[in-house]
Amino acid sequence: MITSAHWFKPHAGSYADKPKHEFKVHLSGRRSTRTSSLCRLQGFMIGAYEEDPPTAWLLLSSRFCVRRPTSDHHSPASPTTDKHFYPSTLVSGRRPIGECPLTPSSSTRAAPPTANPTSIPSPSPRGIMGDVVQMHFSTPDYVIFALLLVASTCIGLFYALSGGRQRTTQEFLLADRSMSCLPVSLSLLATFQSAVAILGVPSEIYTYGTQYWFLGVSYFLGLLIPAHVFIPVFYRLRLTSAYEYLELRFNKTVRIMGTVTFIFQMVIYMGVVLYAPALALNAVTGFDLWGAVLAMGLVCTLYTTLGGLKAVIWTDVFQTIVMFAGQLAVIIVGAHQAGGMGQVWRKAINGSRIASLDLNPDPTERHTFWTLGVGGVFLMLALYGVNQAQVQRYLSSRTEREAVMSCYVVFPCQQVVLCLGCLMGLVMFARYGEDSPLDKGYVKTNDQMVLYFVMDVFRDLPGLPGLFVACLFSGALSTISSAFNSLATVTMEDLIRPYCPAMTEAKATLLSKGLAFAYGLVCLAMAYTASHMGSVLQAALSIFGMVGGPLLGLFCLGMFFPWANSTGAIVGLVAGLVMAFWIGIGNFVSRMAVPTTLPPIINGTAMPLPGNMTTLITLITAKPKPTGVQALYNLSYLWYSAHNSTTVVIVGLIVSLLTGPMKEKDLIPGTVYPVLGNLLFFLPEYYREILCCVTPLPHKPKAIDTHPYQMARKESNGVSHPKEQEKTEDTEREKDEDEETATPQPSCRLAHTLQETAL
């Protein structure tokens, strides 16, 4: 790398009668890069310094760490008095993490004092070209990251070679329904604790304060309702795919529409989840971008394809432990360097980062108590109630009780994860204060701030950066592997098996493994596509939230409203998706249309800033309250699930009433949760019979071959499954007894209908 020094004066024209300063610029890089940087800087100083010297100094001192000389007149330069800034380097002889910025000097052009670059501990700002400051991994960091991949692969190989060796679809897709509470709960936690959340929550706390912590209030109902409503229905129907329920409750068309919507949602999301953290890591540390993407994608595909759901769940357990370890290490070391947690808390209070309870009911406000506590409930229901990745884990539990208990175990774990993210954000603030690495130009996006902070904190501790990166990619691995397995499940059970009822178990298992492998390749392709999305990347991330709400509404429509019919379900789902994409895309486009920065105003004239320089001067104006359609576009993202799911339910109910509500005799027992009977107890019995009379849920799971679902599938396909022909006299007798106990009563009294779950 070539380094050269250049001298120039800000202006030589109208300022001849005023004292001037000369600046010495140390530029590193190729000749063309140095020439371009110098030209841009000269142009900036000629314009800014002539118009308003104090403002020019303000911009230079903040952007390039230039300090104003003690005197405005020329004076002999002294190596001991001039303030020079040099690039700091990491330990162990690593390359510099920053380039030397501007250095004010006197007219004598004295040489800068000699200094050891490695003696400066804090990272210096970015160079004039505006490149993101990069720090680099050491050998221990790479070793720890590699161990994560090796351990995940070994878990997959172990379950591929042990037990039943994944020879049946029940073992491959549902782990033989043999999982206990603890691994299921940790897998539930890890599935949507993605790398995006690990990077996003601390940045959110650093920028906006701890208001986000109130999302934890929504976890209570967001996990209690799935435990006592969705799990009993799904588990007692003995399903494999959550979308099988839609065919039982409505018809095959609704099932296919729900399945295709879910596939669309997850295919886009898993590519972004894989690419986004790798991009942030590459920008901050120089870690090879596509090497990380390919390594993660191929390893995840390998252990998911070989080990099935058992491998996915147990790798989730391992990766959850790594996530906790990585976050705790950052918090402990960062707090120690900041002077302890007491000092961190004091700085957070002084910096107004400890948020108070905001009870503003305005739904356009980004984060309030109601937005987080109420809107977050619907978001949690979309994730933990009806998402196939989570439902599949409930169904893999040994008993319904274990499935319910897993939700209860997830609740404190979610609170711990949320608190860790908040603490990391507060420790970041204690270290940097208002001097954000983003504002200083050390990083380009909020996603990179956490990685920059980690590399800064651990720069003298080789191996610990690798631990956090393992934590980061553990979040990505757990999410992606769950996506592979759930996508293979819904494709096999909802799109292939209903049309190939005579398919043997061996062929079905082999095809399921092939589907998991194929979706792994699709994930890599989507990661490559994400690299070319540019600004559309944010929209791709929003699709996950936009689609989750309508799917939640579809399941709620069928599970809570017995008179909803298939026509209402189809129209409601379409209306919900249209509304979701309208609001989501409208919000994205409207934000893109608003300029994010403005040039400074000097003497009434806007001064254009060259290159990558940004202004420190912003215009503070009153935020206009949005009205009309714009108010809908400004709806807080946490209300998306609530708004879109409510749209599906309302439209579905109206269409169902207009086209003829479904009658009780047409309902398959166990597909409707009898919640309305208790809520509408004050109505006369006649109206309760019309609105809420439903067949109660069975009090225990039926044998898989004798449940009404199997009968319905046999009738719809016209072909009996081979296992259905192997009934014994005992199971036939048990079936008759269960049908008698499940006969609807004349009235709609629900005193004995699912008053308690397996708990």
Sheet/helix structural class: mainly alpha
- Count of distinct structural domains: 3
**Would you identify the CATH architecture of the largest domain?**
Up-down Bundle
Based on CA atoms alone, the radius of gyration comes out at: 30 Å
Q: What is the highest CATH level, the class of the largest domain?
A: Mainly Alpha
Key features?
single chain; 759 residues; mainly alpha; Sodium/glucose cotransporter; three-stranded antiparallel β-sheet; two-stranded antiparallel sheet; 26 helices; 3% strand; globular; disordered N terminus; disordered C terminus
Q: What does this protein structure show overall?
A:
This protein has helices spanning 31-51, 53-63, 139-161, 169-174, 181-191, 195-208, 218-236, 244-249, 252-285, 289-338, 341-350, 369-384, 388-395, 400-432, 437-440, 447-457, 464-496, 505-530, 536-560, 566-593, 629-633, 640-659, 676-679, 685-692, 708-717, 729-741; strands at 3-8, 22-28, 102-105, 601-602, 605-606. It is an all-alpha fold. It has three domains: 3-119, no CATH class; 139-532, Sodium/glucose cotransporter (Up-down Bundle); 535-561 and 574-592 and 632-665, no CATH class. The strands form two sheets. Strands 1-2-3 form a three-stranded antiparallel beta sheet, with helices on one face. A hairpin with a 2-residue loop joins strand 4 and strand 5 (605-606). The longest helix has 50 residues, at 289-338.
